């Protein structure tokens, strides 16, 4: 009887051990699957971040180029504005000289008459 109960206890113990090993193996398998899933997700996110970084770099280069073009256009506008001011000044000066010449001409004509 003692042998029967020991044998029964041994069978139960072996059954519990087998069940524990099976559960351990399932948990390891689940862990490995989850680890693979997270690893894949991390790789995907890293690729997205790299892609976004490239897009950001391209956008920044484009912004820098537009800023340079804006500076050039502003300089051209300033230059054109200066040239226009100079032209208007010369036009005013020419008109003044013309008016003075007409006045001198009219004075000479008045003296001749």
β-strand amount: under 5%
What is the residue-averaged pLDDT?
A: 91
Taking Cα atoms only, what radius of gyration do you get, to the nearest Å? 48 Å
What order do the SSEs take from the amino end to the carboxyl end, as H and E? H
Class computed from helices, strands and strand pairing: mainly alpha
Number of strands: 0
User: Major sheet, described briefly?
Assistant: none
Alpha-carbon distance between the termini? 164 Å
Compact overview of the structure:
With 113 residues, the protein is mainly α.
Comma- or semicolon-separated keywords:
113 residues, mainly alpha, 1 helix, 0% strand, rod-shaped, Ubiquitin-like protein 5
Overview of this protein structure:
The protein has 113 residues and is mostly helical. The protein contains one helix and no strands. It is rod-shaped. The chain starts with a helix and ends with a helix. The mean pLDDT is 91.
Question: Could you outline the blueprint of secondary structure elements for this entry?
Answer:
Elements (H helix, E strand, L loop, with lengths): L1 H111 L1
């Amino acid at each position: 009887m003692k042998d029967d109960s020991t044998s029964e206890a041994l069978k139960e113990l072996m059954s519990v051990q087998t069940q524990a090993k099976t559960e351990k193996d399932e948990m390891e398998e689940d862990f490995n699957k989850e680890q693979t899933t997270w690893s894949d997700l991390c790789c995907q996110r890293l690729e997205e971040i790299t892609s976004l970084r490239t897009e950001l770099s391209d956008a920044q280069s484009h912004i820098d180029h537009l800023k340079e073009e804006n500076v050039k256009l502003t300089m051209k506008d300033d230059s054109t504005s200066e040239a226009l001011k100079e032209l208007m000044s010369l036009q005013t000066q020419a008109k003044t000289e013309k008016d003075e010449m007409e006045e001198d001409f009219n004075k000479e004509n008045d003296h001749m008459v």
